[in-house]
């Protein structure tokens, strides 16, 4: 579903090959402030606010990951971006993955940080806490939590379709189970796996290590 006049809020910096940054659930593009500052010397960086996050409107379309992938396609069309590198974190990684599966010709390189194929890829304790919170939530908060409780739904075999270079990464103490991250990487033909010390939010907590890893991958 496309909405007339709908536009995502974003900021851009740098020049050259487009690199689109996609933040996690309940966040906004400011999560990537350290990446924008550093990677703008390497790429034309676009940091987006997902629908209903940050300064982007909620709109009237369905509030789910498939719609967010369509929003990304619309954003690229609006800004004349034929192809781009994608770096997604958490729910942003899931959006990036769904986009790459649906529009593979538009993705040059794919970085999936702390993503999951299905809700059970999360640590059971964390998932149970989110499910409990979801039952009590109302309104937009319930919509946000639904993205983690009810999505995504990707089968490992589907990842064989990905032919672009892919970097799968997570933290050593991530809320995503280590075996799930390894399953993702193993299921993608041309992928590499990097586990960084730290938590799910290592791009913000350890930006130097995270950015160094991303630079190595993008510069190859």
TrEMBL record:
Q: Which Gene3D superfamilies match?
A: alpha/beta hydrolase
Which UniProt keywords are given for this protein, alphabetically ordered? Hydrolase
Residues annotated as domain AB hydrolase-1: 18-122
Q: Which InterPro entries match?
A: AB_hydrolase_1 (IPR000073), AB_hydrolase_fold (IPR029058), AB_hydrolase_sf (IPR050266)
Report the superkingdom from the record.
Answer: Bacteria
For this chain, one GO molecular function annotation is: hydrolase activity
Q: Which GO terms describe its cellular component?
A: membrane
User: What's the name of the protein?
Assistant: Alpha/beta hydrolase
Q: Which organism is it from?
A: Faecalibaculum rodentium
């Amino acid at each position: 579903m496309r909405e007339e006049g709908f536009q995502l809020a974003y900021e851009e910096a740098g020049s050259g090959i487009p690199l689109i940054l996609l933040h996690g659930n309940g966040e906004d593009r400011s999560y990537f402030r350290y990446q924008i500052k550093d990677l703008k010397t390497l790429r034309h960086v676009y940091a987006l606010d997902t629908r209903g996050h940050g300064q982007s409107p909620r709109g009237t379309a369905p509030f789910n990951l498939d719609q967010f992938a369509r929003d990304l396609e619309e954003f690229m069309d609006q800004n004349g971006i034929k192809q781009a590198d994608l770096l997604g974190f958490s729910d942003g990684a899931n959006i990036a993955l769904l986009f790459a599966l649906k529009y593979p010709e538009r993705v040059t390189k794919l970085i999936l940080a702390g993503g999951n194929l299905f809700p059970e890829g999360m640590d059971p304790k964390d998932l149970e806490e989110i499910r409990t919170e979801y039952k009590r939530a109302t309104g937009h908060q319930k919509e946000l939590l639904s993205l983690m409780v009810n999505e995504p739904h990707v089968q490992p075999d589907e990842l064989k379709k990905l032919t672009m270079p892919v970097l799968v990464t997570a933290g050593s103490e991530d809320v995503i189970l280590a075996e799930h991250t390894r399953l993702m990487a193993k299921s993608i033909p041309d992928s590499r796996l990097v586990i960084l010390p730290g938590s799910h939010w290592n791009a913000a907590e350890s930006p130097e290590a995270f950015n160094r890893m991303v630079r190595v991958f993008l510069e190859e």
